[in-house]
Amino acid sequence: MQGARKYWTDLADALKPRIQEVYDAAAECSFSPRGRKLVDRSMAKGKLSGHVACELLFEPAMLIGIGGTPDDMARLSAICLEIPFAGDYWVWEPIHTVHAATFRALVRADDSRAADIEPWLSVGEFGEPGRPLHEAPLTDRLNGRRLEQINLAQYKRPLSLGDVSYAIERIRELCVMWAYGGSAFYPRARLDDEIDVVKELVGDYFQPHHHSTSDQARV
After folding, report:
1. Whole-angstrom Cα distance, residue 172 to residue 165?
2. Percent of the chain scoring above 70 in pLDDT
């Protein structure tokens, strides 16, 4: 147990400066002072071990996914590929959602690197890409079963750091649904619209009048 803890601590020490480098570059172009505070919190408290701590580490990544550049997301996914799958899909979910957001950003930018990320939307028991998916749970997810539990109706701008975490949870789910192709009830066009709604809600975390590369791709 102690050896495993040291392994994850050492890996985080190696990868977090590289993650911060991407975050800092994105913050310079895209994030407001409020967004920079999110980056500071993520780097101070986020870890690679444990689901909640890993989600915290990659919260800025999800904002970059909807308001940054495909290049920044590709860099983040490349770093995530160095994080081994430890056999627990729930702990892996924050990494999975980074790949989903990257895949969406690259596809929308007509970037061929999307093909390199697509196999990593799923992993097998030993961390190999492209594990078989369980059809029934995935169908439920693509039909919005998990998404509809993340209700932002009562939230108003400006969101606190605590509240923005909940909004980012909805972004994660929308990106995963998009990456898997959506469903008849939630086609990709509707998912894009839903993401735009959340992006407006978290707008105080972006620079004023900010437009992402992916926004321009839709015009």
Report:
1. 10
2. 89
Using DSSP, state whether 107 is helix, strand or coil: helix
Per-residue burial over 167-182, b = 16 or more CB atoms within 10 Å of its CB, e = otherwise:
bbbbbbbbbbbbbbeb
* pLDDT, position 212: 56
* pLDDT tens for each residue of 17-64: 999 999 999 999 999 999 999 999 999 999 998 899 999 999 999 999
Residue 218: what pLDDT?
47
Q: Where are the alpha helices (DSSP H) in the chain?
A: 2-30, 33-45, 51-57, 59-67, 70-80, 89-108, 114-117, 135-142, 161-179, 188-201, 213-218
Task: Yes or no: say if 184 and 105 are a contact pair by the CB < 8 Å rule.
Answer: no
Mean pLDDT value of segment 161-182: 96
pLDDT recorded at residue 90: 86
CA distance 114 to 118: 6
User: What CA–CA distance (Å, rounded) separates 84 from 103?
Assistant: 19
Bridge partners of 206? 31
Contact 11, 134 (CB under 8 A): no
DSSP 184: S
DSSP 32-44: -HHHHHHHHHHHH
Q: Residue 123: helix, strand or coil by DSSP?
A: strand
